[in-house]
Design goal:
- The longest helix is centred in the last third of the chain and has 16 residues, at 176-191.
- The protein contains eleven helices and four strands; from the N terminus they run βααβααααβαβαααα.
- The chain is α/β, with parallel strands linked by helices.
- The chain has two domains: 4-128, Rossmann fold (3-Layer(aba) Sandwich), CATH 3.40.50; 132-191, no CATH class.
- α8 crosses α9 and α8 packs parallel to α11.
Length: 192
């Protein structure tokens, strides 16, 4: 059975990180999950972080991703939210993980999910760096193919064409261990 993971708002709208996570999912390394509330938070938080950002464009991007991964939407989790024992701000994420039967949660806010709230539910907690490293270790060819696919999709609509190395450079601040390991594996792959 394929590993499934809830992607929290904090990992959905740093563009390169989100795109990498979704390309890795599209290659079949795991199944992404989310809720409408998680996406609403991601768009809202991105608007607060970058006041000049076009919220309509962000919303369209979110809707496009949701269409591309139409089986990722988790609904009907609301009745569980108040019973969750993790940080109140992130209870909706844990409730969605339960309803979606997620194996894990990928978040940049690890403190919102203490082990005591996850262990009884058998749900893993991952930083984006840890998660991508695990995916790379589990299915290196799929993850490296995802990076190449991500690079291949750049350069459209007058945007700059990026190489895999360029993408890794942009990912490095958020997922430094993954970028180092991926770069090492790419060198071996390209040499072979």
């Amino acid at each position: 059975m394929i590993y499934s993971a809830i992607l929290d708002a904090g990992v959905l709208l740093p563009g390169y990180l989100r795109n990498t996570l979704l390309h890795v999912a599209a290659e079949g390394s795991y199944r992404p999950l989310w809720s409408r509330r998680i996406w609403a938070e991601a768009v809202r938080d991105a608007g607060h972080a970058s006041p000049g950002v076009d919220l309509d464009s962000l919303q369209q991007s979110a809707e496009s991703v949701q269409r591309d991964f139409c089986d990722a939407m988790v609904s009907h989790w609301e009745h569980l939210e108040s019973a969750m024992t993790n940080h109140p701000r992130y209870r909706h994420v844990l409730a969605a993980a339960i309803v979606g039967r997620a194996n894990g949660i990928v978040t940049d806010t690890l403190s919102g999910f203490p082990a005591s709230s996850l262990q009884p539910l058998n749900i893993d907690l991952h930083s984006p760096d840890e998660f991508l490293l695990e995916r790379l270790g589990h299915a290196p060819a799929l993850v490296l193919a995802a990076l190449y696919m991500q690079a291949a999709k750049t350069g459209k609509d007058g945007r700059v064409k990026l190489s895999v190395d360029d993408i890794l450079d942009r990912l490095e601040p958020k997922v430094p261990n993954f970028t180092r390991q991926a770069a090492d594996r790419l060198q071996v792959w390209n040499a072979g």
